[in-house]
Amino acid sequence: MAQDRPRVVIVGAGFGGLTLARALRRAPVEVVLIDRQNYHTFQPLLYQVATAGLEPEEIAHAVRGIFQKRRSVRFVMGTVVGVDWNASAVLLDDGDRIAFDYLVLAAGAVTNYFGIEGAAECTFPLKTLEDAIALRSHIIRQFEEADRHPERIREGLLNIVVVGGGPTGVEMAGALVEWFELVFRKDYPHLPMNRARVLLVEALDTVLAPYDERLQQYARQQLRQRGVELHLGDPVARVTPEAVYLQSGERIPTRTVIWAAGVRACPLADRLGLPQTRGGRIEVAADLRVPCRPNVFVIGDLAASRDETGRLHPQMAPVAIQGARHVARQIQRLLRGQETEPFRYRHRGSMATIGRHAAVAELKGGVRLTGPLAWFAWLALHLVQLIGFRNRLQVLINWAWNYFTYDRSARLIFHIQPISVNELPEIKYAELENPEHDTS
Amino acid sequence: MAQDRPRVVIVGAGFGGLTLARALRRAPVEVVLIDRQNYHTFQPLLYQVATAGLEPEEIAHAVRGIFQKRRSVRFVMGTVVGVDWNASAVLLDDGDRIAFDYLVLAAGAVTNYFGIEGAAECTFPLKTLEDAIALRSHIIRQFEEADRHPERIREGLLNIVVVGGGPTGVEMAGALVEWFELVFRKDYPHLPMNRARVLLVEALDTVLAPYDERLQQYARQQLRQRGVELHLGDPVARVTPEAVYLQSGERIPTRTVIWAAGVRACPLADRLGLPQTRGGRIEVAADLRVPCRPNVFVIGDLAASRDETGRLHPQMAPVAIQGARHVARQIQRLLRGQETEPFRYRHRGSMATIGRHAAVAELKGGVRLTGPLAWFAWLALHLVQLIGFRNRLQVLINWAWNYFTYDRSARLIFHIQPISVNELPEIKYAELENPEHDTS
How far apart are CA A35 and CA A14, in angstroms? Predict the structure, then answer.
C-alpha cells in the first residue's frame, strides 16, 4: 500500500460503502473497506431468496472480486466494534485496530423491534443472506410438517404473518402468496391450501404509507385480490413462539412471523459517543460530516441527513449511493484544501412490487405507474442495479424461468444458523468502556 | 392415494431411490419416497460447490418438483431410524411409522473415518450441500485470516490437506489449486501465495488406484504439475485441530483437512438386524433382495451386490441407477407372480477430472482417454446427468463463465451449521432396542 497517501477507512460494504470505494478510484488516497461479510448483499432482492425465487449467490458479490484490479482499495473482513477517537483508529472485534485519516461510517441498519415483547426472539428478520435462507427453509419445513401431520395445521402451521406494510412487507407478502399458489399447491396436493394464509399486519391504516393515496389503494386491492389478509391499523402487541397478538386483542396462531416493521441504525452507532436521532442514526452536518469531527463522514441508513426542510432522508439505497458520491467529492475537496459542499439528495422516485404484473411506481414529476408497466420497470431497474454481469445474467434467467414456468426452483431446506446482526461482539477495549467525548 | 395398490416404500432420494420412483411410474403400485432432505443432491459435483465454482441450488432439485405430476408418488421428508419387521413398517425419527408391501433401502453411504483418531472430529466431510457450503466458507475464512494476520500462515492457515486419492480426492485437490491460482492469487495480492499449499495424502502408492496404470501416471503427473503435493503410500495416523500426522511421522500443520478417504453404509444399515459386509453394506441375493426377506430390496451404495466373480460392485452412481431399474422390473415381476431375475451391472466406464483440460476416462472396451477430450467428455456427461433443465442451464452458464473468465463467483462465506449424516437420531422405539431377528 502507498503509505504516503491519506487513508480513507470505510465501514460497511453496502450500497454506500461500495459506491464510495469505487468513486475514490482516481483520488490520491488509500482506501480500506471493512465489512463483517466477505460479500456485498443486494438487499432489495432478499425477499426473493426467502421465497425460493432466486439463489443466494445471485444477489451477492464477493467484495474482493469487485476490487481485484484496484490496488488502492484494500478489503478487510472484520467486525468494527468501536472507534478510538484519540488515536483516529477503528477497532475490530479481534483486537486489531486500523488507523484512518478519513473515516466514513456506512454500516447501515438492522431490524428494529421497537421493544415489542417477543419480537426479537420469535420473529424472522430479513437483513442478510443467511436470514433469507433460514426463512426459506423454515417456511418449507412448516409445509413438510403439515403434510405429515395435517392435524397440526390448526396450530397455525401454515399461517405466515408479515409485520410491516412498507415496501419490504408488501413485496414479501406478495411473493409468499405467489409461491404458495404457484408451487406449494402442486407440491402438496394432499394439503388443504385454503388453510395456508399470508397475513400482513400494519399499525397504520394503509400499506405503502409514503406513496400517493391512489397507489396505496391499488396495492391494498392487489394484495387482497391475490389472497393476502390485511390487518391494518392494528399494531402487534406481542409475539410468542405460537402466535402473534395484536393490540385489538386478536390472536393469530403462527410459527412464522416475518419482521419487516422497520430498521434502526446498526449497533455500532450506539458505541461511538456521537449524537444520535431516534432510531440511532448519527447526526450529521449538511456536508455529511459529524459535527466537530472534521474527518468523519456518515452515509446511508446510518446517517441522520436531512433535506432543506429539516426532514430526515428516507433510509433507502439511492440516498446511500448519492451520499457516497458526495463524500467522495468532499474528501477530494478537503485534500485540495477546499471547503465542503452541502449534500443534496435528488429523489428520482420509488417503486414497490406486489407480484406478477403488479407493482407501483412514483417517479419524479408526479408520474405514477401501476400494473404490468410498473412491474416490468421494477424488474429492469433491479436487474441493472445488481453488481456483476454474471449475477445479472443469472437473475434474468431465473426470473424468466419463474415467469414462464410458474416455478420457484430454489425451494431447498438448508440447515443454516443465522448470526444476529443486531448484536455486536463484546468490546475488548478498555478505552471504550469510558468513551471520551473528546471533541478536539 | 390409491389404497388398494401395493405400497413400495423407498428410503433415500439419491440416484437409486429417485431412479426407482421414476421407473415405477407405470407400475400398479403406490410409491412412498422418504428422504431426510427435501431435495436430491447431485453428489458428483459437490466438490465444485465447495470450491466456489457452482452454487448449491444448481446441483440440487426439490424432490416434490420432480414428482409434481405423478400422483402415485408420495414424498415424505423424514429420517428413517429403523424398520419394524413384524409390522412391515419403517420407523421415522418423530415416532411415525409407514407400512410397506415392498421396501427398497437406498439410503446410500456416509463418510468412513476408519476409526482414525481425530478424523471424525477435525476433518471436513463432503457428502451434503451443507458440508460443501461449510467447507467453502471455512477455506475462504482461512485466507481472510491470513490476509489480516500473515504471521499465522506458518501455523498452516493456508495448507489444505485432502485425504484420499480416489476420484473425489483427486477432483477436490485439482479444483483447489485452480481456485487458489485463478482467484485467490488476484483476491489476496498481499498474501504470499507460494505458501498456499494443497496436499493430497493417500495410503496407497498411487492415486486413482482402480484405473489403468497409464491413467494413474497421467493423474499423478498432472496433479504435481498443477501444484498439488502428493503424499503417497503414507496413511494418516491421526488428525488434530492444528495438524495431520502421517504414519511416516510427518506432521503437516493445517486447519483444513478434507476427508475423501472412503465411505461406509449409512448408519441406518446397522440398525436393521441384517447381515452386513465390511463397510456396513447389506448382504443381498443376486436379485438384490435381502435373503429371507422376500419383499425387501437394497440398491446403491448400501447394497453388497456382487458381480459374477463374487466381487462387490463399486459404490458409484451407475450401479445405483442400474440397480434401481432392475428393482423396478423385479417388483413388477413379483406383482405378476413371476420369478425374479439376477441383477447384472453393466460397467460403461469411469471418469475423473483433475482440472482445466485434464481428466481421465476409462471406457468399455479398453478405450482410455486423457487430456482435453476426456475433460470435455466429463463435462458433457455430468451436464446431461443433472436433474432438471434449469439446473443444466445454470451449471452450463457457470462453467462457461468460469472457463472464459477464470473466475469462481460463489466465493461467499455463509455461516452454516452442517448436521452430521454419520449419526442417526436416537431411537424412540421399544421394539428396536431388542430387534427381533425374525426371518419369517
Answer: 9
- What local confidence, expressed as pLDDT, does residue A428 receive? 52
B133 CB within 8 Å of a chain A CB: yes
**Residue environment code for B351-378, b if the CB has 16+ CB neighbours within 10 A, otherwise e:** bbbbbbebbbbbeeeeeebbeeebbebb
Domains of chain A by start residue, with CATH: 7-111+264-336 (3.50.50.60), 129-261 (3.50.50.60)
φ, ψ of residue A139 in degrees (nearest 5): -65, -45
Pick B38's closest partner by Cβ from A65, A144, A407.
A144
Quickly count: other Cβ atoms within 10 Å of residue A209's Cβ: 12
- Is-catalytic flag, B339? no
- Would the pLDDT of B427 be above 70? no
Are B416 and A418 an interchain contact pair (Cβ–Cβ within 8 Å)?
no
B-facing residues of A in 68-97 (CB < 8 A) are 68, 71, 74, 76-78, 96
The closest of B15, B406, B423, B331 to B178, measured between CA atoms, is: B406
Q: Which of A129, A188, A415 sits opposite B417 (nearest CB)?
A: A415
* B317, pLDDT greater than 50: yes
Minimal Cα–Cα distance from B121 to chain A, Å?
Answer: 19
Question: What residues of B are in contact with residue A64 (Cβ under 8 Å)?
Answer: 187-188, 411
Model confidence pLDDT, tens digit, residues B86-144? 999 999 998 899 999 999 999 999 999 999 999 999 999 999 999 999 999 999 999 99
* Residues recorded for chain A: 440
Counting beta carbons within 10 angstroms of the beta carbon of residue B233, is it exposed (0 to 12), middle (13 to 18) or buried (19 or more)? middle
Please report which helix (H) or strand (E) contains residue B200, including its range: strand B197-202
Whose CA is closest to B341, among B333, B352, B349?
Answer: B333
Residue of A nearest to B72 (CA): A189
Residue A386 near residue A59, CB atoms below 8 Å: yes
Alpha carbon distance B80, A310 (integer Å) = 63
Query: Which spans in A149-270 are helix H?
Result: 167-179, 185-187, 213-226
Among residues A30, A58, A171, A362, the one annotated as catalytic is A171
Tell me if B247 sits within 8 A of B259, measured CB to CB.
no
CB A251 within 8 A of CB A239: no
Cell numbers given for A97: 485496530
Task: Say if residues B239 and B123 touch (Cβ distance below 8 Å).
Answer: yes
Convert B7-70 into a string of H (helix), E (strand) and C (coil): EEEEECCCHHHHHHHHHCCCCCCEEEEEECCCEEECHHHHHHHHCCCCCHHHHEEEHHHHCCCC
Strand A251-253 relative to strand A303-304: parallel, antiparallel, unpaired? unpaired
